Amino acid sequence: MKKIAVFTSGGDSPGMNACIRAVVRTGIYRGLEVYGINRGYEGMIEGDIKRMHSHSVSNIIQRGGTMLKSARSMEFRTPEGRKKAYDNLSALGIEGLVAIGGDGTFTGAKVFYEEFGIPTVGCPGTIDNDIYGTDFTIGFDTAVNTALDAIDKIRDTAAAHDRIFFVEVMGRDAGFIAIECGIGGGAEFVMVPETKTDLGKVVKSLKGLRKSKSSSIIVVAEGDELGNAEEIMGMIKQKIKDPTKEFKVTTLGHIQRGGTPTAQDRVLGSRCGMGAVDGLLAGKTNCMSGVMNNELVYTPFAECIGKTKPLHPDHLSLLDILSI
Amino acid sequence: MKKIAVFTSGGDSPGMNACIRAVVRTGIYRGLEVYGINRGYEGMIEGDIKRMHSHSVSNIIQRGGTMLKSARSMEFRTPEGRKKAYDNLSALGIEGLVAIGGDGTFTGAKVFYEEFGIPTVGCPGTIDNDIYGTDFTIGFDTAVNTALDAIDKIRDTAAAHDRIFFVEVMGRDAGFIAIECGIGGGAEFVMVPETKTDLGKVVKSLKGLRKSKSSSIIVVAEGDELGNAEEIMGMIKQKIKDPTKEFKVTTLGHIQRGGTPTAQDRVLGSRCGMGAVDGLLAGKTNCMSGVMNNELVYTPFAECIGKTKPLHPDHLSLLDILSI
Amino acid sequence: MKKIAVFTSGGDSPGMNACIRAVVRTGIYRGLEVYGINRGYEGMIEGDIKRMHSHSVSNIIQRGGTMLKSARSMEFRTPEGRKKAYDNLSALGIEGLVAIGGDGTFTGAKVFYEEFGIPTVGCPGTIDNDIYGTDFTIGFDTAVNTALDAIDKIRDTAAAHDRIFFVEVMGRDAGFIAIECGIGGGAEFVMVPETKTDLGKVVKSLKGLRKSKSSSIIVVAEGDELGNAEEIMGMIKQKIKDPTKEFKVTTLGHIQRGGTPTAQDRVLGSRCGMGAVDGLLAGKTNCMSGVMNNELVYTPFAECIGKTKPLHPDHLSLLDILSI
Amino acid sequence: MKKIAVFTSGGDSPGMNACIRAVVRTGIYRGLEVYGINRGYEGMIEGDIKRMHSHSVSNIIQRGGTMLKSARSMEFRTPEGRKKAYDNLSALGIEGLVAIGGDGTFTGAKVFYEEFGIPTVGCPGTIDNDIYGTDFTIGFDTAVNTALDAIDKIRDTAAAHDRIFFVEVMGRDAGFIAIECGIGGGAEFVMVPETKTDLGKVVKSLKGLRKSKSSSIIVVAEGDELGNAEEIMGMIKQKIKDPTKEFKVTTLGHIQRGGTPTAQDRVLGSRCGMGAVDGLLAGKTNCMSGVMNNELVYTPFAECIGKTKPLHPDHLSLLDILSI
């Protein structure tokens, strides 16, 4: 293998730049030529590909976003689109790919590999942490700390006014961000897609809790089965029927995707990126480079996409106990 | 004057604790007994008042929110409510008041002073900066920096995807936060209540700009005359009619009210608090202690409430020029 | 077991408050009375012990430092001191202890348990991460992120001036902080106590690197075998002998011990705290409650103190490869 | 005037990039060609000058440091050096200069203008705030907030251990940073070059204070007439002679120069930059564009360099009163 290319795809996440940097520098260190593909599969189809050098990735490890940009590509879902992409890579002599992204990215990579056979290793870049085959995804820790910082700020004002706040965090299918910043933020309740939310219990607690507590914060993952934060607040407000209680909603939104990555995300991104290149050189393909139990591991794309990563039961216990 | 009391009222803002601390310590330094009233006018009516010492305000200068809590009081708007409040203060021998808050707080303080004659000096505690008689209000700088940090994060992800983001910041009647974080965040446009928003110009620019710009951020004050960010985005989307452009809205909400105060807010809060006590001792009343042109000044409540503080024309020019 | 007490000892670390909160609330949740001992073993000897309730630990999870304060006790190293401590605990009927701290804390706890038999479980509270029996210690992640933030700031000014910066971080016997923030900060070199520093290689690289690099950052753990950052800079300066190169040293010092804890430290502190109480109730003693491979585990104090936790070889490789 | 050039010189400061951006975009907006000179006077001599476009300054407003780099030039102090610089500018047809920096930068600019007559307007870029002709310098607010954040962290650990901390901040000739972060950080004492430090009073207070205070923080400007923090701590330690008291020093160093600029520094940098270009176009020269009492003003270089900006007496009072 002489030439490899790296790209980011799907939703961006903090730490992707650290990962790109590691791919580029490990590749060069191992004697490879490394190329960067702009805007994911879209750029692959358009041939938006450039040679990368060691200095191309100087001073980016601390930047949020992705220097290679990202996009969602409709055309790559068609055989014609993928053929164009393959032709562009072939023309440059690219013999290996590193795909940084989440579920959708790996699904595309799997199909592409199975059709055209260019060896491909993935790196788990998404804030949601919902990818099997790695304990944490690149960007998760930063997103959690951003959400936590917001919760700390909201608690200041919630406490000043004895208010009940609903904070909606990202997580369409998974509650990892919600659980983590809920524990860390001292939330009274956390509502996640993975567990059935018992509204009666929440209402009962909120009525009772208010005597000793100066404020209450309820963290809601956007994908909770009962609805989003606004909707859930509506239900609870109606059941509590107490005009003296003030309810407020804050939806954190896209601030969770940006920002300077934390140490953990930079190190994890670096490690997965190095692992991806070394994996390609060792003959790995159609799999993801992740970190489990502090060791680099490779998991087939099929498992990463197909298996569900469960919330840890200890975390659910902590929430129940610590909000008393 | 032997005994004074301090309270916070209305929306809380970062730096209120620094102000309380300065009132308490300046009072003690000048030989006074100082009392703290919890939850603003509500606590005044309920007699929720406690003696404060130098150590009562230790280690609070860096905290967001207000250690005396805040509330909006309906009862204080009635003569009976105010009579109860007066009786409670009289019973304790309180001879002077420091009222930390905004427009509503000062309106209440003015009425109360005119009815019962307890000397009262205010301190401008609100994130909105919309109070005449002080160049900046306590909490404004922190709110702007919080909003700016959010915009920086959003730009990371906006740039990764070539998106157009609408960021809604606080400011029901005033655009100070929007203008300041718009300039600081390199926003393409800022929409504020004080100026008429020219939607046609924005649409035209957005269509043109996109060739050289990788992303666009539009900051909207919640009180813009065209509507909130969601509504304005709807109008623009409809006029641009380009399905390849992605539009997103983020409403920053209550995170702007909390958080560790900046240096400026701590120093300003300290200075206004000291000024309020020294003002009371010098016979001032029915006025606010603010800082204009870096000097402590006292402005009658009537002016603080009645006069409008305009946006600086230089700031409006900066926005036009720097977004090219 | 009906009554337990918790204390913090040795150097404080961010997340200790989250741990105290978890001990108090888990204890109460399980039906125990919980006491807090001020200033570690010193307060135990002086009988500075107070009952703690659920609200005693409200609103502390986000605070740095330790609400129970810490101290280093000479008297506890004497049999007489320990006897006094035991008598105070006995008088209150304390039947179990949770000791939050590092090596020194556990050494004291082990001796105390072996002499007086009060069941004791420890929690790993130290920024250094040098305790066997847990993947991370409480406070490590915050310290690393604080150091990383400082390195990011220094890189801004280093890059503006083409300078070589030596940044000294904490770590008398262990290089965990240095390695982690070195990888995350994109450092050119990291010098740690665990590995022999090859000065010749550094000098050679610094001479060579400067053509393509705009600045160089070298992270030095305070306990590196060659000396501290100031001393190492002196050696290198002398060998490079190039008056056009500017060398600077920054010693981060105690800022690494303070600050709002990160999500990871709050969650880890909470989990270890819960684990310590549940451990006591399950009959554990003379051991530490830690988290390895994302599972709660108990490790005898003897091992925590006696065994060395090694740096991960992957991290050392990353440093070599990514600084090219 | 058709062509202007901008450069940064001397110590870098956060907000310089915002200023460069404003110069470039205002220049282009007004129909000029704008050039950037790398590494200050050094690059002027070497002819390291490049054309700048609107997109050249995209996405830099939030970055610390200076994209044009800075340097201190010995050669520019010689007539030959300045002649070379002039020849390079002439060759490109540069008719106006914007010099961003501090005292040294303006001294050089003044001499250069007087010798060669190229109109020059300065912008006050330095963290020290010690330039006459502007209420604040670009970078001061960020430096203060960085120092304040460090003090907050140190207070966490100081409070946990009842320690006395000496924190040294930048300020060789001026105490602005020290005063501002001393008030904001709730310091017990602040020692600055402008006032005589009364060591006896400090010692007396420290002995007395310790009963009610859990910790003490003393902020020292590096240029205090008694010495640096380490030296002053030595003197105090010797006078207090109390082995139970722990004294610690932290020297914040270069972290104060870097980091993401605050809103104030970005807005101030933008405003001064716009003012510099508009000043050149209006025929101003040999002067600095600053902001006093919230209005843009131009002050002759001779005054900026020659006059001293005093500390505000209110700030000195605040320190005395609020540390009780």
Automatic annotation (TrEMBL), chains A, B, C, D:
NCBIfam families hit by this protein: PFKA_ATP, PRK03202.1
Activity control summary: Allosterically activated by ADP and other diphosphonucleosides, and allosterically inhibited by phosphoenolpyruvate.
Residues engaged in binding ATP: G11, R72, S73, G102, D103, G104, T105
SUBUNIT field: Homotetramer.
Catalytic reaction equation(s): beta-D-fructose 6-phosphate + ATP = beta-D-fructose 1,6-bisphosphate + ADP + H(+)
Organism of origin: Algoriphagus aestuariicola
SUPFAM superfamilies on file: Phosphofructokinase
Family: Belongs to the phosphofructokinase type A (PFKA) family. ATP-dependent PFK group I subfamily. Prokaryotic clade 'B1' sub-subfamily.
EC class name: transferase
Keywords from the UniProt entry: Allosteric enzyme, ATP-binding, Cytoplasm, Glycolysis, Kinase, Magnesium, Metal-binding, Nucleotide-binding, Transferase
Domain Phosphofructokinase positions: 3-279
Gene3D superfamilies: 3.40.50.450, Phosphofructokinase domain
GO molecular function: 6-phosphofructokinase activity
Positions with a binding annotation for ADP: R21, A22, V23, V24, R25, R155, G186, A187, E188, K211, K213, S214, S215
Places the protein is found: Cytoplasm
Protein's UniProt name: ATP-dependent 6-phosphofructokinase
Cofactor: Mg(2+)
Residues that, per the record, bind substrate: T126, I127, D128, R163, M170, G171, R172, E222, K248, H254, I255, Q256, R257
Domain of life: Bacteria
EC number: 2.7.1.11
Function as written in the Swiss-Prot or TrEMBL entry: Catalyzes the phosphorylation of D-fructose 6-phosphate to fructose 1,6-bisphosphate by ATP, the first committing step of glycolysis.
Active site: D128
